[in-house]
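The record is kept unedited without comment:

——
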Amino acid sequence: MQITKPTKVEVTRELRDYFFITLGLISYALGWAAFLIPYQITTGGTTGISAIIYYSTGFPIQWSYFIINAVLMTFAIKILGPKFSIKTTFAIFGLTFLLWFFQLMVNGSDGVPPLLLGEGQDFMACLIGAAMCGAGLGIVFNCNGSTGGTDIIAAIIHKYKDVTLGRMIMACDVVIISSCYFIFQDWRRVIFGFVSLLVIGFVLDYIVNSARQSVQFFIFSKEYEKIADRITKETHRGVTVLDGIGWYSKSNVKVLVVLAYKRQSIEIFRMVKDIDPNAFISQSSVIGVYGEGFDKLKGK
């Protein structure tokens, strides 16, 4: 079997994805180390479970996170594919290191996390930390990566069901946050946990699903067959081929019509550019798309 050597463009794309995944991980880890951990605020996901273990036993949060995700990754590789799994593995190792590193940088000489915002600023720390975590997750997801844990579960469901990532993660994490009551015996901590969950979900949805609106493409290219085959195969979106006439040249042309989510726009542009850099593309936003693969038909 002949192995296709990746092109320079493909390598550049992958490096760009890993760069932005790293930025997302830095935001996520710093939100935990500087704001959530010092004020003993938890949230969902395996990081939330690890935080609860840390608050109750003192066992380092990064090692609990790594162990739990190592188990979950064994189930995710076959379902999510090697590219997602490779990036997720990179994110898991990277976040394990960054959680350790930022705690080392933030904590005092006695190893106790300082209250950067001062005493009694739990709510503000909750908002800032959760916003940083949500932004980090959004960046990672936009690059086809994941920080593991319930993100893996959400990504699996999101692959087959049209459910927003933030809501899916929120549903998975309610039980985790509620369980922190048994550690602190304080409903205030539970409320802070749910506030952080809502903020993370809102910021994550804003970043990821701002690209969720539907768009329509008109693609003019002599390589229309190759483009149509690749779009159908890799994005799982239907392609319609229309016959047209170029009025200036008076020659017959083929026009591809594609309806997709806006988040898939970059992927579609990349495919077309790889096959035919001289293709002519028109992209426009559409108010609504109803039918298989999109929203259900509305009406009585």
Observations:
- The chain has two domains: 8-209, 214-285.
- The radius of gyration is 23 Å.
- The beta strands are 214-220, 239-246, 251-261, 280-285.
- The mean pLDDT is 82.
